[in-house]
Structures are given as C-alpha cells and as structure tokens.
Design brief:
The complex is a heterodimer of chains A (218) and B (248).
Chain A lengths: L1 E9 L2 E10 L5 E5 L6 H9 L6 E5 L4 E4 L11 H9 L3 H10 L15 H14 L4 E5 L7 H17 L3 E6 L2 H7 L2 E6 L4 E7 L9 H10 L1
Parallel strand pairs in A: 3-7, 3-8, 5-6, 6-7
Antiparallel strand pairs in A: 1-2, 1-4, 8-9
Chain B lengths: L5 H20 L8 H14 L1 H33 L1 H15 L3 H12 L3 H25 L3 H9 L4 H39 L4 H10 L3 H30 L6
The chains are: A alpha/beta (218), B mainly alpha (248).
Chain lengths: 218, 248
C-alpha cells in the first residue's frame, strides 16, 4: 500500500505535509505522535472518509476499521451488526464473536454490553470484512491498563489467524511496542514523518523488558 | 376483587364527575347526563348514521395523515441535510407554521372548490410544516460516526437508509405521528363544519344549529373513542416495537 499526502488543510491551517509511506502486506505499523497532530486525519484519509486533500492512496485493498468509539448500530443485535455491515455469514459472525471472547453476545443488543465488550465487537466487525488492510483508531483508548493489555493480546491472536496489513493510531508508546513491527512517528506543524523504525522481531516474541526498551526509545 | 387497570379507572372517574355535574346543573339541554348520551349513541348506532359519519371523518383523517407524514418527512429530511435548502426553506416553514388553520381551509375551499380534495389538502397543509420541523431536527441529529462507519464498510445506499438512517429517525417520526393524528382530526372537524355534507364535523354543525348538546356530545365522544383506540391499539404498540432496542 502506498500513501502519498502532499497537503491536507483544515481551512487555512495545514495539518499534514509531504507524507510518503509504503506499507507491505504483512507490516504492522503503529502511527505514534502527540494528540491533535493529525494521526486520525491520516487514518481517515486512508479509509476514504476524508476527501479534501492532495495526494494519493493506492493498494489498500479491502479495508476493515475500528473507530475510537465502538460505533455499533444500537437497534440491531450484535450478530446483525457483524452480518449487516460486512456481509459475512451468521456462522462467520459467531466464530469471530467466540474469537473475541463473547460467545453468547450474538443475540444481545449493544446497549447491554460494557465499553470493553463493545470494543471487542467492533474489532470482530473489522475482521469480519476479511480486510487486506486493518485500520484501528486508538481502539483501546479509555480502557484500564489490564483491559487494554488483554485487548492487545487479543488483537495479536486475531492477526495470527487472519493476517492483514495493520495501521494502528496510538499515542501510547507501550501499545506501539506491543503490537507493531514498524513504528512511524508524526511530528511538527504541519505534521510530517519524524521517525520510521522497523523492528526485527515479531510482537508475539517480545518480552516485557524488550517492549519497555522499544517504548522508551519510540 | 379483581384490580382494574389505571386508565380504565381514570375514565370511570371522568364519567362519574360528568354525571355529578349533570345532576347538579339539572338542565338536560345544557349538560345531559352520561346515560342520556349513551342511550342516544346506541340509537344513532342502530340507525347507521353514526358509523356512516365516523367512517367519513376517519377516512379524511387517514388520507390527510398519510399525505402530511409523507410530504412533511421528505421535506424535513431535505432541509435537515442540505444547508442551502434550509436557508431558503426556513422562512417558508416558519410562515406556514404560523398560518392559522382557518385561513388555509377557507383559501383551499375558495381556490380548489368545495371538494374532497380541497378538504384533505387543507388539513395536510396545516400539518406538513409541523412534521417537517420535527423531521428536520431528526435529520440534523443523525450521528456522523455511524455515517462514517457505513461508508468505510461500504454499505449500499439502500442498506444505509434502512439500517442506519431510518432507525435514527423513527423516534422523531413516531412523535410527530402521535401528535399529528390528534391535531389532524381536530382540523378535519373544522373542515367538515365549514364545507362538507357528511362526517362528524358536519353533524356537529347540524346539531349546533338545533342547540342539541346531547347529540353534539354523541358525535364528539364517539370520535374521541375511535382515536383512543387508534392510539392504544396501533400507535403505542408500534412505537414500543420501534424503540425496543433501547431497553436492556
């Protein structure tokens, strides 16, 4: 996948400038940077949700996305949320719900779920697209530390079974170090690429000590 | 003792107060007793008069309701999602909202003629701006996050409308429907009073000229009963069904 953004502005203010990225089909990229820098804007551009910008995005293939909020249809059951939005079968939906640890949630309505559970459904929905590219916009924000760690482990499991190119936006270096094979840092105003660092091991093989070391230098 | 449901008890209390008031007044020409009205209702039912005029009024109410909901919803959605249309349409909407029902009715009868079309159009025109205002609020409150979600996941326009947009509008539609039906039948009565030769409004006109309060009450109460039935048997169950996802 190639991302080339020459310019993205909100009114007069230029947000992103001269960003060129190439992301391989198995890459797991964490997009790191302070909040408000334009990480989510970059993700929305890749997702096709933003149209007012200059440049091009090619080769993303099929996209699955999880937003900061779970964004489920509240008037549809959890299972319908997967099948209606992604055209997956009921059986596939149930398999994914089991995979995210919610085997009984299928017939329930989203307002009966906790935030953490709704986030897991949102993640299952992104995988139900059978994505070539998985876009995650701070999908574990505002969860407590243990819950976030469980979700991160869950994401690695899902990626092992359903390989996809990952682009995850986060402001948390620990999260980047736990999930990514490559960490890209945005900085400056307008924001440009500040760092692009490939890690030589897989996230699943990392020790806590190694994760802490990566995070400290990210 | 079996317990009666509260709405029923409440209606019984109303009849009781009415009976007491009628007995204290002691003037059957001004305020007849409930049983006088009940007896007359049965007589009008037996002669077929009551059902004939009730169904005429009900048909006009339903026709005007359907037209007002359809046109008002479409208009409201358009204004709520299109800023330029809203800027142009808003003064019109405010003007129509403040146009007295009587003016619309009189003008419709003069311009279109003393016809069924004029009667139903006059009622619908009175209700359309109210539906449009409420549906515009609904369209403005559509969740942008759900819109983005539908776009990323590539939902077809039909699926977006059915699964994303319409469920968000349903509460607004139900609310304007329930207030609408009450307003519409009241205007239908005025329309019938002024220019139709059947219907509850026409009969009330007849008995008003005879100063026959009892028969005026027969027709008024019968139609209120019909509307209560519509409310409890159709509108409320539908609204409960449409919003069942809100209850955990």
């Amino acid at each position: 996948m190639r991302v080339a953004i020459t310019r993205k502005a909100w009114g007069e203010a230029v947000i992103l400038r001269d960003i060129a990225l190439e992301i391989g089909p198995q890459d797991a990229v964490a997009l790191l940077g302070p909040s408000g820098i334009g990480k989510s804007t970059l993700l929305r551009i890749v997702a096709g949700l933003d149209t007012a910008w200059e440049g091009s995005v090619t080769g993303a293939g099929r996209i699955g996305m999880a937003f900061q909020e779970p964004t489920l249809l509240p008037w549809r059951s959890v299972r319908d949320n997967l099948t209606l939005t992604t055209a997956c079968s009921t059986a596939e939906a149930d398999t994914l719900l089991r995979a995210v640890g919610l085997p009984d949630a299928g017939p329930r309505f989203p307002n009966t779920l906790s935030l953490g559970q709704a986030r897991r459904v949102s993640l299952a929905r992104a995988f139900a697209m059978r994505p070539d590219t998985l876009l995650l916009d701070e999908p574990f924000a505002s969860l407590d530390r243990e819950a976030a760690a469980r979700m991160q482990a869950l994401l690695l499991d899902l990626l092992r079974d359903h390989p996809a190119r990952l682009l995850i936006v986060t402001h948390d270096p620990m999260e980047a170090a736990r999930l990514a094979t490559r960490i890209i840092t945005l900085g400056g105003s307008p924001a440009t690429l500040r760092g692009d660092r490939s890690l030589d091991d897989l996230p699943a093989d990392r020790s806590e000590e190694r994760i802490a070391r990566i995070a400290a230098t990210a | 003792m079996t317990r009666l449901p509260v709405p029923l008890l409440s209606m019984l209390a109303f009849v009781l107060v009415w009976a007491l008031a009628a007995m204290i007044a002691g003037s059957p020409n001004t305020l007849p007793t409930p049983w006088t009205v009940a007896r007359l209702t049965l007589a009008e039912l037996a002669s077929g008069e009551l059902l004939f005029h009730l169904s005429a009024t009900l048909a006009r109410t339903v026709a005007a309701f359907i037209i007002a909901m359809a046109v008002g919803s479409a208009l409201g959605l358009w204004l709520g999602t299109n800023r330029r249309a809203d800027a142009w349409g808003d003064p019109w909407l405010v003007g129509l909202l403040n146009l007295p029902a009587l003016v619309t009715i009189v003008l419709c009868y003069i311009w279109i003629g003393l016809t069924e079309v004029a009667a139903i159009a006059a009622v619908a025109i009175n209700k359309i701006p109210l539906v449009a205002t409420q549906m515009r609020e609904g369209a403005r409150a559509l969740d942008p996050a759900l819109r983005d979600m539908a776009r990323v996941f590539g939902l077809s326009p039909g699926a977006r409308l059915r699964h994303v947009v319409l469920p968000q509008l349903a509460p607004h539609f139900a609310a304007s429907g329930r207030t609408g039906i009450a307003l519409i039948w009241k205007i239908v009565l005025v329309v019938e009073f002024l220019g139709r030769s059947n219907g509850v409004g026409f009969m009330i006109h007849q008995y008003f000229q005879l100063f026959d309060v009892a028969r005026v009450l027969v027709y008024a109460i019968s139609f209120v009963a019909v509307m209560l039935a519509v409310e409890m048997l159709i509108l409320q169950p539908w609204q409960r069904r449409a919003t069942r996802w809100r209850r955990p």
